[in-house]
Amino acid sequence: MELWFTEKYPQGWGITFKIDKALCSVRSPYQRIDVLETVGHGKLLVIDGCVMFTEADEFVYHEMLTHVPLFSHPNPQRVLIIGGGDGGAAREVVRHSCVEEVFLVDIDEDVIKVSKEYFPTVSCGLEDERVRVKAEDGVKFLERCEEESFDVILVDSTDPVGPAVGLFEKSFFEKCYRALSADGIMAAQSGSPYFQLELVGRVHKTVADVFPIVHTYVAGTPSYGGMWTFVIGSKGQDPSLGPVRKDDLVVSGLKYYNYKLHVGAFALPNYILQVIGKFGSGT
Ligand code: AG3
């Protein structure tokens, strides 16, 4: 018997993996979490039927969510990750020696537990002594924190269904803005330009209502069916102009991000420029 897992996207699309065996299935108070051993892509983390990552290509998403904003900031010392309980984003953030303190706030403690048990090469970021992990609602955490508490905020959420809905709302981005320092930067995953084009446009415009400098950028993520988008909002530096720091981190083991790619990731196809309202503006 052959086992296959398919994440079903709208319009009759799907992303399918051949599965060796199912390793774990947890129903947390918030969502269903599954770990599957694939035949060709290592272990796969699935939340509510959506692919979170495979071991084979998680580096693309995690490096691009983190290093684009972190290298756009002159001196990121305090970083907040909302979601990201698997630890992949934290693993990338702590590569930056200027980072002094990282808060990781994920609503679902079970994601953290499952990742620690099944994905040690991803969850290792949570073990760094600079990282403080909190299992709570990111929106409530932001409401409590003082103004200008963080230099960089990263939103590593699931799709805007279930517990992540609030992480795509204007009021959430306003809270991020308030919690960011004067030259602070926020980056968030903003969906698939093939399967969720309306979402890509909506999130960009929502962030543009809050931050003075806003861009959408892309990366090639096979396990999400092709390209993926991220939105970045900045109070000071324009991240699309390229990295403002260059240190030896990039040559010391990153698998996707490099300085040229940082700039190149902001070059968008016309159909994406159209939905974010930048087509024809020369950007
Ligand atoms: N964050 C989820 C990206 C969204 C995937 N969506 C989908 N497959 N429909 C991934 C978490 C990794 N830390």
Folded structure, characterized:
This protein folds into two domains: 3-54, Spermidine synthase, tetramerisation domain (Spermidine Synthase, Chain: A, domain 2), CATH 2.30.140.10; 58-276, Vaccinia Virus protein VP39 (Rossmann fold, 3-Layer(aba) Sandwich). A hairpin with a 4-residue loop joins β3 and β4 (43-47). The longest helix has 15 residues, at 58-72. The strands form two sheets. Strands 8-7-6-9-10-12-11 form a seven-stranded mixed beta sheet. It has helices at 58-72, 88-93, 109-118, 120-123, 138-144, 170-179, 197-208, 259-264, 270-275; strands spanning 3-9, 13-27, 32-38, 43-47, 50-54, 78-83, 101-105, 131-134, 150-156, 180-191, 213-221, 226-234. The radius of gyration is 18 Å and the shape is globular. The protein is an alpha/beta fold and 283 residues long. Helix content is 27%, strand content 32%. The chain binds 1-{4-[(3-aminopropyl)amino]butyl}guanidine (AG3). 1-{4-[(3-aminopropyl)amino]butyl}guanidine (AG3) binds next to β5 and α2. 1-{4-[(3-aminopropyl)amino]butyl}guanidine binds next to β5 and α2.
